[in-house]
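From the shared-data thread, chain only:
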Amino acid sequence: MNCQKDGNAMKIPFIEQIIYFFTKPSKFELFSLFSELSAYTSGSVPINQALAATANYQSNKHLQAALKDIERDLIRGSDISTAFYKQKIFDHSVAPSIKAGEMSAQLEKVFANLAENYWQQAEVQEKIDDALRTPKMGFIIMFFGCIAFAKFAIPKYEALYQKNNIELPTLITFFSRSVNFLTENIVLLLLATILLCKLYKHFTDRNPCVVDKILLKTPVFGQLYYTQLQQAFSQNLSVLVASGLDIKRATELIAQMVASPVMSRQLEKAAAAMSNGMDITKAFQSINTEKIIHPKTISFINSGENTSRLDQMLKQAAQVHEANLRLLAKKAESRLTIAALLPLVALILTFYYMSIMPATNLLTQMPGG
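Structure, as tokens:
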């Protein structure tokens, strides 16, 4: 893998991308979808019938339309993974996962794994949102409070200062001019923001491995992302090995499924090492120079290889990582709350100081003050 993204990106105008960002399916909706598909397929319901039944009850219009398109493609003779791949609303890992399920005749388990992955993502996202909800509301209130202060209170102070031939404090002047600049040039600022977003997307599309390495090292979020990768890798590899696929082919498929470009590249190297006759554990150890696969996971793989119970040991590894992920999510929630509240408190204190400083400064500088 050369760390370049494929063409499975949504090629739509930028404004439509913004609209889609706020209307795309949620993690909970995708969890519900794949849970239902897993239930239908485990009950031997044909996949096209399962899709038709599921599509009718989708509240998200993008998801409903995608499922109907998939159903039509299947009727025309397309395989399931290709039909899902054509729908850009799904993560890039969905189609390879389904392909692995088709090859291993374990489609219902793959759907269940996808549902579990989306549930974990939804849980983590919910904890992050809960941690940031109060600080975000505080910042919004303070933002409008600063604008109101600059637009209505400071002009009155300016008049009083001029009337008494006293120069307005530098901090207040700077604050007033900054807010006025922002409000008077809002269109230019929006255009600049759009340009920065497009440049960021351009950079991430062409340098996914660089971005991935940054994400992995990001405080709090990096640990969550890394642990989630370990859980998904162990769980999916366990399913494929249990279905009868040889470990080399299973590793190649997992390389297409994982969300991390860095891990994907390393797994392809591990599969190549196995092709050259290297033992399973040694193959994973040989490519793990960046520690993208947790040493604990490799230890489970080693135990599974030595006892001929690789699928069971990988399942155990997935359970360990899942428990760790839940613990990290709880810790992240409290840390994010504190981290977000500290600048909010500093902003409130600054705003309070700026609101009383003009009056106190005026009183001290007036004759007889």
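Confidence is low (pLDDT under 50) at residues 5-12.
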